[in-house]
Amino acid sequence: MLTSLTGPPGLLGDYLRHAEGPREAGPGAEPSGWAADLAAELKRLEVEVRPGYTVGPWTIDLCVGDVGVLCAVHPDGPDTHLERQGALHRAGWHLIDAFPSRWDGDVRRAALEIAVLADGRRGAGTGQPGWTAIPEAYRHR
Predict the structure, then answer these.
(1) Whole-angstrom Cα distance, residue 58 to residue 40?
(2) Which of 23, 28, 69, 130 has the maximal Cβ count within 10 Å?
(3) Dist. CA 5–CA 94, nearest whole Å
(4) Closest by alpha carbon to 108, among 140, 130, 74?
(5) Predicted confidence (pLDDT) at residue 126 exceeds the cutoff of 50
(6) pTM above threshold 0.85
(7) β-pair type (94-97, 67-70)
């Protein structure tokens, strides 16, 4: 939208202020269960995690870089889970289903794989290498 207005009142002004840049990523809802364990393990790996990230009507359990991490089937069931995935994929999100069964409940292994995936996505298309080293504290556990 192009306009010569610098500070219009009302709905148009709200829209233009909102469109000036990305919204502040405020703190999301604190995760619980597997999502909380996974978030804590990612933080131990010094990976930035944003819980409860809202995108339109949907909530992504954890965001790691530009990867949306879905830690459980949507509370409204599998059909809604697939609808959420489809909508977020169409909006450009890279998603991973990070259910505990995928890693047999091993939160450390899940966190390591997600950290590597997110770091690889961060460098994708830039010619920069991704995350290649596992911190010493995690190598032989």
Answers:
(1) 23
(2) 69
(3) 37
(4) 140
(5) no
(6) no
(7) parallel
The pair phi, psi for residue 103, each rounded to 5°, is -115, 20
Q: Which comes out higher in pLDDT, residue 95 or 135?
A: 95
Q: And the tokens for 87?
A: 């909508």
Q: Specify which residues 58 forms β-bridges with.
A: 55
Question: Long-range pairs for 5-12 at CB < 8 Å and ≥24 separation?
Answer: none
DSSP-derived letter for residue 46 is T
Q: What is the pLDDT of residues 45-61, one digit of tens each?
A: 999 999 998 888 899 99
Q: Distance between CA 124 and CA 18 in Å, rounded? A: 29
Q: How far apart are the first and last CA of the chain?
A: 55
Q: What is the largest CA-CA distance in the chain?
A: 62
Residues 51 and 34: beta-carbon distance below 8 Å: no
Instruction: Give me 47's structure tokens.
Output: 């990976």
Token pair recorded at residue 104: 């047999």
